[in-house]
Amino acid sequence: MLARHIFRVRKLSRGFATHAESFTGLPATLHLKTGQSFKGKSFGAPHSRFGETVFSTSITSYTESMTDPSYRGQILVFTTPMIGNYGVPNNEAPYDSQDVGVVLESKGVQCAAVIVGDVAERFSHYNAVESISSWCKRHNVPGITGVDTRAITTLLRDQGTTLGRVAVGPDACLPAPAASEYWDPITENLVDQVSTKAPYELNPTGDIRIAVLDFGAKANILRSLVRRGAAVTVLPWNYDFNAIRDQYDGLFLTNGPGSPSHCMEAALNLRKTIQQWNKPIFGLCMGHQIIGMAAGLEAYRMTFGNRGHNQPVLALASSGSIKAGRVYVTSQNHQYALKLQDTFPAGWEPFFINCNDSSVEGIKSTAESGKNVIGVQFHPESSGGPLDTIEVGSVIAGKLYQVLTLS
Asked: What is the pLDDT, as a whole number, of residue 18?
């Protein structure tokens, strides 16, 4: 009896054991184009990397953030002091009616580099299989630890998103790059880099058919659809949906990285869809901006964007569980936004506005337009983040309600 009890205790202790892993970091420096440099030590891949330096105020879900395609080309600074304490899980999942092949938001680390105040050398979680350092190394992504991320964040808030370089090893001792040497990822069509190259299907036996324009979709968006019984066809970002639209019950436009100006082709295709097609259309993040551009609104580059799981938005209209005048806490990751203007295009109205910077957080078609179109800048499906707006799509009536609300 005693032996059986001891065995159970030992088994329990193994389940909650803290894994230990030490690494010898090389010298590393973060250079900003505006002239500031921050010295620390490296973890992950021992390589130098250029990118756009941004910060995230998320206090958890670093694995989801780092695998989000919207962070493509960016040097991600976490404001949370310690990152990596619960390790990294196995990122493989089945393709079935419950999952889409991955546990996180994509197959690999998407950001160009990671900056943390204190990287955890010891991690503990029952799903963890490796440390953040070994994970970054496998995916060829460098990181810096031991720097003052508060100072970096203050700079970025004051001067805006800034181009940077992570210099590792021998490069860390070299002078900062000349201004002309910094690479600006916004000059490239990052959406085209992360979007699927060919159409593919998920959960083909689902009882409702949804087409998804992939601008760099988080896996949880697709996962949320298939778990609610949808047969999902994922299309490249510039696919002409109008040629096949009659095969589908609704259209979904996903998140994605970079500037929406590179996606004007998609906006023009969507304008035709909205004019000629009366079935539900839903977009979030980049998809929201594409809907706005199709409606005639202008997208602009924000000073430092909104990245984190704590962005407050004010509802300007009611829709299902969303009540006008109420503030909701949301998860966001974007550098661009739609410009708020006094007179909206005919048939459109603002849905949400950001409580911090008054940027447009949502638009929708008016009841008089006869259309069912919604776009939101935030991620209502939450992963990771709050659940306040999980039923944001409830204005879309009928059977699609259960799918497009992501509830």
From this structure: 60
Q: Where are the alpha helices (DSSP H) in 52-163?
A: 62-66, 132-138, 149-159
Helix 286-295 to helix 264-276 angle, to the nearest 10 degrees? 60
According to the model, what pLDDT value does residue 392 have? Answer: 64
For this structure, is 21 an active site residue? Answer: no
Catalytic status, residue 285: yes
Higher pLDDT, 333 or 199: 199
Cα angle vertex 254, ends 252, 258, to 5°?
150
Region 190-404: CATH code: 3.40.50.880
Pairing between β-strand 27-32 and β-strand 162-168 as defined by DSSP bridges? antiparallel
Candidate list 64, 121, 361, 381, residue with the active-site label = 381
Is the model's pLDDT at 86 over the cut of 50? yes
Residue 53 forms beta bridges with which residues? 75, 162
**Residue 21's pLDDT is what?**
57
Residues counted in the chain: 407
Catalytic residue among 105, 121, 285, 361: 285
CB atoms within 10 A of CB 140: 13
Joined tokens for residue 290: 């594409």
For residue 158, pLDDT beyond 90: yes
Three-state secondary structure readout of 95-113: ECCCCECCCCCCCCCCCCE
State which fold the 2-186 domain adopts: Glucose Oxidase; domain 1 (3.50.30)
What lies within 8 Å, CB to CB, of 332 at 6+ separation is 285, 306, 307, 308, 311, 377, 378, 379
The mean pLDDT value of the chain amounts to 89
- pLDDT band for position 251 (cuts 50, 70, 90): very high
Q: How far apart are CA 156 and CA 176, in angstroms?
A: 18
Residue scoring higher pLDDT (380 or 259): 259
379 catalytic residue (yes or no): yes
Q: Which residue of the set 262, 288, 309, 379 is catalytic? A: 379
Domain boundaries, the chain: 2-186, 190-404
DSSP codes of every residue in 153-211: HHHHHHH-SEEEEEEEGGGGGSPPPPGGG---GGGS-HHHHHS-SS-EEESTT-SEEEE
